[in-house]
Design goal:
The protein has a seven-stranded mixed beta sheet with strand order 16-17-18-15-14-19-20, with helices on both faces. Strands 11-10-9-12-13-21 form a six-stranded mixed beta sheet, with helices on both faces. The protein has a three-stranded antiparallel beta sheet with strand order 7-8-22. Helix 4 (106-129) runs parallel beside helix 5. The protein has two domains: 7-259 and 456-479, Aldehyde Dehydrogenase, Chain A, domain 1, CATH 3.40.605.10; 263-442, 3-Layer(aba) Sandwich (Aldehyde Dehydrogenase, Chain A, domain 2). Strand 19, helix 14 and strand 20 (439-442) form a beta-alpha-beta unit. It is globular and about 75 Å long. 39% of the residues lie in helices and 22% in strands. With 489 residues, it is of the alpha/beta class. The N and C termini lie far apart (56 Å).
Length: 489
């Protein structure tokens, strides 16, 4: 049923309900949404969708697709641009709610992350406007590659940086002419609900952009199994990615997935060690809940002691605290279950004989903070080396030469990102060719160009998003061949 319910989230009004076909829709069931900053703080009881809500959303998106896909690209781009303007206006409110909901540092959200959501919509509006079809002649024909909107699209996003990552996927889908059903993670749904308020204010046609909330195994499963859905984009764990991939395969629905990482952070003896150590300590930011982080420190043996000294000092400058406080640099983890998961990795590492260099404990018994932790594993096969922890836990290993560095870097099943610190340009060019990762940063981290392809190899994912790659994914491509000499007559 339609709903006008709102909840007050520390002074910001937020709807706890779905957004389907241009209206807020409630459910008979709800789920609790609590703040990681204080688990006693219940932010909202959020509508818990199931098969009914999934069907309503896909039906709305299917019916709206005919009109939306037939609009001129300039008209669709104008909707996206208006939405970007509204996001820019409300950056502070969205940042505040997302900070309370998933505990990312509010200053970072306000200054960098939420604004990226507006830039996503602007960037894809511009890319769609400026698309230049590939044209060539062959075999006596003029050839043109055209994009066709693919159809209703399901976007499933994770609990870390939910607003930005949702816009990153939804913007190109909408720009390509698809209608969208967004399903945010149940641990941090509120900022995505705020996005729907802005969609309504931007006067998107009903059914073009929908939001369905709930648990993955309930409403998420219903969405990805619906044969009317023609694209699925997911960010989350490899385990869930496999389940969604099976559903997509059943209906032959194209599917892209970003499934986490276990990135190497490679430091050569010729690097600026102080800069490398400072950047390595950044991997603890936001509680280490960043898939692109370089969590495996691989350091050339000859500079291990000096690097470790600098890294320890940089790590000790971190402040664990309330994410609303500008002095805080390490936020709490998202959920008690996730804290237990991270702590379990460390406890098993100790049992396995891995050495805790520093940290290794829950910071406070009344909260969700975990100490920045460095572990020196007994072997490269240790669990803490091979599996994604997604917390403030790094490992330290050494290498003797470039070949061993590459061998260690490529030794996990993941391949999302890699970080290299070296002043030797020929070396970093060689490494760029040899490292198995979707993105490789040299002497920097998290520098993103929205036109570059983004995705992983191995169990880090399937497909690429970003720039024209995303617009191609959300489209069906066709080739128009016209016999040379055909006239207008």
């Amino acid at each position: 049923m339609t709903s006008t319910a709102r909840v007050d989230v520390d002074g910001v009004s937020v709807s706890p309900d779905h957004y389907i076909n241009g209206e807020r829709v409630s459910s008979t069931a709800t789920f609790e949404d609590r703040s990681p900053l204080d688990w006693r703080w219940r932010l909202a009881d959020v509508a818990r969708g199931g098969t009914r809500e999934a069907d309503l959303a896909v039906t709305a998106a299917s019916e709206a697709f005919t009109h939306w896909s037939s609009l001129d690209v300039e008209d669709r781009a104008n909707y996206l641009t208006r939405l970007a303007q509204l996001i820019e206006r409300d950056v502070e409110k969205i940042a505040h709610v997302e900070c309370l909901d998933m505990a990312m540092l509010e200053e970072s959200l306000r200054l960098r992350v939420i604004g990226r959501g507006a830039r996503n919509f602007r960037a894809y509006a511009d890319l769609a406007r400026n698309y230049e079809p590939r044209r060539w002649t062959s075999n006596g024909t003029e050839n043109t590659v055209l994009r066709m909107p693919a159809g209703p699209t399901v976007v499933i996003t994770p609990w870390n940086a939910p607003f930005m990552l949702s816009t990153w996927k939804c913007a190109p889908a909408l720009a390509a002419g698809n209608t969208v059903i967004l399903k945010p993670a149940e641990w941090s749904p509120l900022s995505c609900s705020m996005l729907m308020d802005l969609v309504e204010e931007a006067q998107f046609p009903p059914g073009v952009f929908n939001l369905v909330q709930g648990l993955g195994e309930e409403v998420g499963a219903a969405l990805v199994n619906d044969p009317r859905v023609r694209r699925i984009s997911f960010t989350g764990s490899p385990e869930t990615g496999r389940i969604i991939g099976e559903a997509a395969a059943k209906n032959l629905t194209p599917f892209t997935a970003e499934l986490g990482g276990k990135g190497p952070f490679i430091v050569f003896a010729d690097a600026d060690l102080e800069a490398a150590a400072d950047k390595a300590a950044v991997m603890f930011d936001d509680g280490g809940q960043v898939c692109l982080a370089g969590t495996r420190l691989l350091v050339e043996q000859s500079v291990r002691e000096r690097f470790l000294e600098l890294f320890r000092a940089a790590s000790e400058r971190h402040v664990l605290g309330d994410s609303r406080d500008p002095d805080t640099t390490v936020s709490p983890l998202i959920h008690p279950d996730h804290l237990a998961r991270v702590n379990g990795f460390v406890e098993r590492a100790i049992d396995h004989g891995d050495r805790i260099v520093f940290g290794g404990h829950v910071e406070r018994k009344d909260g969700l903070w975990f100490q920045p932790t460095l572990i020196e594993p007994t072997s490269n096969s240790s669990e803490v080396v091979q599996r994604e922890i997604f917390g403030p836990v790094l490992t330290l290993q050494t290498f003797s030469d470039e070949d061993e560095a590459v061998l260690l870097a490529n030794s996990t099943s993941y391949g999302l990102s890699a970080i290299v610190y070296s002043s030797d340009r020929p070396r970093v060019l060689r490494l760029g060719a040899r490292l198995r990762a979707g993105t490789i940063w040299v002497n920097c981290f998290l520098v993103r160009d929205l036109t570059a392809p983004f995705g992983g190899t191995g169990i880090s994912g399937i497909g690429r998003e970003g720039g024209e790659y995303a617009l191609d994914f959300y489209s069906d491509l066709k080739t128009l061949q016209i016999k040379e000499g055909t006239t207008n007559g």
